[in-house]
Structure formats: C-alpha cells, structure tokens
Amino acid sequence: MNYFSFKDGVLHVDNISVLEIEKKCATPVYIYSELCLSNNYKALEEALENKLGKSHPKLIAYSVKANSNVAVINVLKKINSGADVVSSGELKRVIKAGITGENIVFSGVGKTKDELFFALDADVMQFNIESISELEMLSEIASFKNKKAPIAFRINPDIDAGGHEKISTGGSSTKFGIPYKQAINAYEYAKTLPGIKVVGIDIHIGSQITDLEPFKLAFNKVLLLYKELIKNGHNIINLDLGGGIGVSYDENTKPFLISEYADLIKEKFGSLDCKLIFEPGRYITANAGILLTKVIRKKESYNNSFVIVDAAMNDILRPALYDAHHEVISVLEMKKGKEVTDYQVVGPICETGDIINRKARLSNIKDGDLLAIKFAGAYGAVMSSYYNSRDLVPEIMISNNKINVIRKRILIEDFISYENIPE
Ligand code: LLP
C-alpha cells in the first residue's frame, strides 16, 4: 500500500492533498501517515507471529529515538507497542504517550544517577547495562530504594554491521556495550550485587542493516552466551535483540524481507521460552513521513543548477551528516516524457554541506513550487535544530483523513525569549 501517492496529479498523504496541508500549515513541515506507522508495526508483528507462533512471548519496543513525537508514540501504544528509551526525556515522552514500565526497556550508554532514579520509579522492565560502573551505580540506587532492578548486559559482539560508519555500533572500537569476552564475569558479578536482578541479554549492532549476515553472527553469539549463562544458573528470561532493520531509501538498496528476518529469529531463538524483545525504530517510521518544502528560488552558478528550498540541514540533518540519500520529488506529478533536469536541492543555511539531494531529477521547477523529501519519518524531526536562527520545523500527522498538528512550529522568538543579556 502506498500512503504517499498521486491522485489527480497531486501528491496525497492517505487521502489528503499536500496542497491542502500546505495551505493550513505552511512549509517546511514534516507530514506523517498514522496508517502507515501502524501498518509498519503490524507487518513486523505479523511476520514474527507467523514464524514464532502468536503465543511466543515477545515485545516490540519501538525505539523512540527514531521519531519521538508523543503522538507518534501514542499511535504505536494503541496497538500494544512497548518502547526502547535512552534518556529520561524519552522516558517522559513514552509515559505521556501512555506506555507503562512493564513495556519499557531503558538503553543508553551514559545513564546518569538522576535518570536511573527516575527509571526505577517508572518500574521499567529492563535496564540495558553498558558498563560495570553503571551496574554498581544502579545497585546502590536500587538498594537505597529497596528495589530490585531488572538488568541485561548489552553485549558488544565485535561485529561490523556495515552501513555508515557513524551508525554502526557493534564493533570493538565503539563505545557501546561490554566486550563479549567479559560477559560471563560481568554476569557472575551482577549476581552478587544487592538491588540487582539479572533477567536478560541485550544486543544492538547498528542501524540501517540491509543484509542478514551480521544479524546471524551476532545472534549466534547471543545464543552461545545464553547457553553458558543458563549453565551457570542465571535466570535469563529476556533476549533483547535490538533494532537495526534497514529500509530502501533508493532503488539500489534492497534490504532483506521482514519475513526473512523473522525466519532467522525463529531459527535461532524459536525453541527458547525467553521473551524476545525487538527495538525497531527506522523500520516503523522511515517511510511514514515526508518533509514538505517550498522552492525559494532557482540559481544557476558555473555548471550547477541549484534549487534553494525553505528546508535545510537544520530540519533534516541526515544528508549532511551521513551523505544519506533522500529522494526529492515534485508534489505535482511529473508527466511522462517531460524533459527533466538534474538539480542540486539545497537549503538556505550558510554551509557548503547544506545539500538535501545532490541530483534530484525534476522537471521545470519554478519559484514557489512544492517539493517532498521522502523517507523522512525516521531520524528527521528528532534531529532538527534552530541552527542559523531558523524556526523549529513543525510536524503534522494525518489520522483518519484529518490533519493534526502534532508539533507546532516553534518560533525563533520563543528560543530568544530564553536568552538573557547580563546587566
Ligand atoms: N536500539 C538501540 C540501542 C539503538 O541505539 C538504536 C539506534 C535502535 C534500537 C534503533 O535502531 P533502528 O531500528 O532505527 O535502526 N541517526 C541515524 C541512526 C542512529 C541510530 C542510533 N541507534 C540515522 O539517521 O541514520
């Protein structure tokens, strides 16, 4: 099903024309389809249930960092999603969206004392521990509170998951997790600490993974460790398999099918009665959002045809930060056979790297035209800023063919009001 499609020559989100949205909300603006979000979640759930059986204990803990708007989280909560959070800020968001502790895992490499306090009060189902000193801090706080904190260690398996260097997390040179070889000792030590209850193993090797091979290698290591820990008398009831499922940002990227991922899960873990936890972010949200932008003006310089739009790297950082590809299309359907030009779509920010798409094939662009930046639902609005003193980009969600403003445009005047000139 296509949630962003042309009807009568105009791009629609579900059944709403983007022209109507622009009239109401101006640009730049993120637009999400609730239907697409929930269907993505259901596709993963169904694939897992088809392979594992409906009754196999599992939790899809949506990784909130991909898109943390409370309305987006709430869409997923309504269809029973849990949440994976990495800060007390994200924890506050998921609580506001209605998700409760028994469906929340707390990940993150640098949890502070305050955050551990807060998460203990929220009774999260699992702390994914990334170092011994974090474990000791949690033990102290939990003992003080007369609680037992349920923990899993995040294991760093030293596996290169491919993808962009900046989003690969499973290698030995990254800050994430504890080295695989130290895991057995870490679990033995955790057993001796007050206020700690060992419940699981956690792994997350990277993001935008399109090949199953690194998952296979990582899952094998989880399985080996699981068997060893059970032998040593640990009560491992949760296996948190992380996120990382890749999506197709362009036609050359062909990620594995979700049914193939589910096959692998079944092959490796189907016979265990552990609860399987998944932390998908991008898979749920990437294709569920576009960033709508308006052409400010065209500009020819040397041999370049630039289209300067009103969205910029502060609104969508992925192209500048990771050289990520986001297709840019006109919201008016391109007629077949019409002449096309390769444009560089750029933002107005004073940085050479403020390029949204180096080679967008568009026909006959005019000032004031509307363009859609596709696959912008994951790591888009969450990574936006007010750099160059621009307003913070708003977010809209289409639900049941209604336009809902889920984050209003935060004006630069609002930000300035927090600043102060000392007397
Ligand atoms: N779990 C943990 C512990 C994570 O660190 C992440 C992502 C996820 C789950 C969700 O991964 P996903 O299913 O979305 O691949 N800003 C980058 C992506 C950074 C991912 C960080 N961790 C981007 O725009 O590509």
Architecture overview:
29% of the residues lie in helices and 25% in strands. It has 423 residues and is of the alpha/beta class. It folds into two domains: 158 residues, Beta Barrel (Lyase, Ornithine Decarboxylase, Chain A, domain 1); 252 residues, Alpha-Beta Barrel (TIM Barrel). Helix 8 runs parallel beside helix 9. The longest helix is centred in the N-terminal third of the chain and has 19 residues. The relative contact order is 0.16. The model has no long low-confidence stretch (mean pLDDT 96). Ligand LLP binds next to helix 10 and helix 11.
How far from one another are the termini? 60 Å
Helical run tally: 12
Given as residue ranges, the uncertain stretches (5+ residues, pLDDT < 50) are none
Fourth-level CATH superfamily of the largest domain: Alanine racemase
Per DSSP E runs of 2 or more residues, the count of β-strands stands at 21
| Structural class determined from secondary elements | alpha/beta
CATH architecture of the largest domain: Alpha-Beta Barrel
Classify the fold: give the CATH topology of the largest domain: TIM Barrel
- In angstroms, what is the radius of gyration? 23 Å
What profile does the largest beta sheet have?
A: 9 strands, mixed
Residue share in helix? 25-40%
Integer average pLDDT:
96
In this entry the ligands are: ligand LLP
Shape call = globular
Beta-strand content bin: 25-35%
CATH class of the largest domain: Alpha Beta
The domain count comes to: 2
